[in-house]
Structure formats: structure tokens, C-alpha cells
Fold this sequence. Notes:
Layout: E1 2-17, E2 37-50, H1 63-72, E3 83-90, E4 97-104, E5 111-115, E6 120-127, E7 136-138, E8 147-149, E9 155-157, E10 164-171, E11 178-186, E12 189-196, E13 202-210, E14 215-217, E15 222-224, E16 230-232, E17 234-236, E18 243-250, E19 280-288, E20 293-300, E21 309-316, E22 322-324, E23 329-335, H2 338-341
Parallel strand pairs: 1-5, 2-11, 9-16, 12-21
Antiparallel strand pairs: 1-2, 3-4, 3-6, 6-10, 7-8, 8-14, 10-11, 12-18, 13-16, 13-19, 14-15, 17-18, 19-20, 20-23, 21-22
Amino acid sequence: MYLRTLNSKFQILILVGVAVFAGCNLIDEDTSECEQDFSMNLSTRLITNLNTSLGELSLVEEAPVQNALRAHLSGIFPDIAHDMDYRFYQTHGDSLLAYSRTEVIDADKDRMEIHLPVLEYQHLSIANLMENGVVSLKEDDRCRRNRLVQPSSDVIPSHKTGIFSGRLLMELLPQKDQTFTEELYMVNCASALVLDTLSSHIKGASIYVTDMATDFSVCDSLYHYGTAPLVRADKVDVNEGSLMCFAAVHMPSKDNGRRTKLVVEDPTLIDSEESAETWWRLKCYLTLKDDTVTETVLGVRKPIRAGSLMVLRASADNTGRVIPQSAVMAGVSVQIDWNDGGSHVIDL
């Protein structure tokens, strides 16, 4: 496991006037009627905790899977932020929104300038949300009501980006230059199933992940768990040998001891211990050559936490049953000819 700190080149220059007159515009560009400005530099750092799961794919025949999975997840565990959402809330009263702005930054922009009055602010940041495709920000003028939410559907696609969030209490002081550094931590995570099909006669497979958080409170860094959707894993193009690979990016599962809290105080706590309890499940649907479908439900006894990647192994037999090979996995149920007696329909 290693901790990777990604220093974004993007900075916010917050200009604070010594005095504000009646005609002074604090939000837009016109500050001609304000007195001297003092600068508050806010630097943003993305921090992601990426364990050594890819290194566990060390066998010669697993090298193509490792390379394909690394390429597939390169946009999930990024080197820089693509877009940033900045919000400044007052800390008194109803904690109302004072200023917000969304910027696409990439490598084309390294600085943004805004103007704020001398006050104390609760600052919230969200990175890489714009192109996620699944998660959206349910925003509100009150700080505590901002949430990252997912569609209320039975089945949702895998997240397309790794999302980062951070919060920082900022007291802007008059007549004084200040520097702030905000650390953003990953909100979602990734899981992968490596499936050995050598002993099977399958012509297709669909893998789903479930029992993850449904939404995330940005201000409190709290996850909420309602009726969890099935997250459809993407097939990773390996194109070599009998190994298939499926990867999904999703919210984390519940966790023993830290069930709903995004831990930012000690990010090295990402490796959770295995337990007897099943924390989340994979639902596997394998299509045989006669077009029958076998459903296998696998339980995972190790929580998956925000910012992590967990790689699991399994094999398929000639009935389409998925047999767990990773120690943290356990078979929950198997239903052969599932498509004849299934109670719900999944797009296979």
C-alpha cells in the first residue's frame, strides 16, 4: 500500500479588500472602488490511497490482465484534477452559500481569482465530478445539505471518474496575506473480478456489484446506505488466454468500526480486516453456449473503502457456476437456468 499525494497546479487567489465601500463589487471583476487587496492563496492537493492489489497479479499468465486493468483504471486514480467545484459558506446562522464556482482546469489553467469579504468560511471542494456520468451534486444554499447522489435505479453503470472531496475552515483576516492548503480525498473506489474460464463453456458474462453506499454528504464526509443499486461492471479488454476481467467503480461498502465515515485523519487505514460478516456482494450471470444463464451470488468478507482498489479471483465451471478463489470471498447462492425462473430482468 502507498499513499499518493497529487499536487494540483491549480491555485485560487482570494482577494480581500481592506475596506468595502457601497459601490464595491466583491464577486465580479470590477474592484475599482475597493481599497487595497490582500491575497489568500488556496492550493489544492488530491490524495488517493492506492493499495498493491495490481501487484498481486504476479503470475506470468496474469500480466495481460494487470496491464489491461491498469490502463482501464488510469482515469479513476488520476495524476491531476480535470475539473473543480469550489463553494464558500458562511459559518454563522444558517451557513448560507456565499460564493460558488466550477472550473475545468486540466493543464490549461493554473490560477483563478475571486473576491470575498473578510469573514470565516466553510470551504467545500469537489474534483472530477463533471465527467463522472453517474454521480451528481445535489446542491443547496445551506452547507450541510450538499450531497453527492446516484440515480434511484435498480441498475446503474460504473462511475467514469474517481471523485475527490475536501473541506476546509478558512478565516480570512484583514490586512494580511494568507496561504491555505486543502487536501481532497477520494469518495468512491474500484473493484475487479478476474475470472478463469478455462474449464467452462461460456459465451458471455455480466458482473454486478451491490451493497454500496447510495450517497455522500460533502460537508460531514458521511456515507448513507439506502436501497443499494446493482452497479454494472465494465468488461476490461484482456484479449489473451482464458482470463476475463471485469471492473466497477462505485461507492464504498459499510465498514466495521467506521461504517459510514470517510476517514481523512489517517488515510493509511484503507486496508480493512477480513471478518466473518459479508460486507458486499457480487452477482455473476454467465451465459452458456445453449443460451441458458447461471446466476452466482458471491459474498465478500472484507469491506471495500473509499480510495481503494480490490482485485478478486474466481473461476467458472461448465455449468456456469462461479467458484471463488480469493480467501475473502464466499459463495452465497447458485441458480442454474436462472433466466427461466428469475424474478427480475437484467440486461445481460
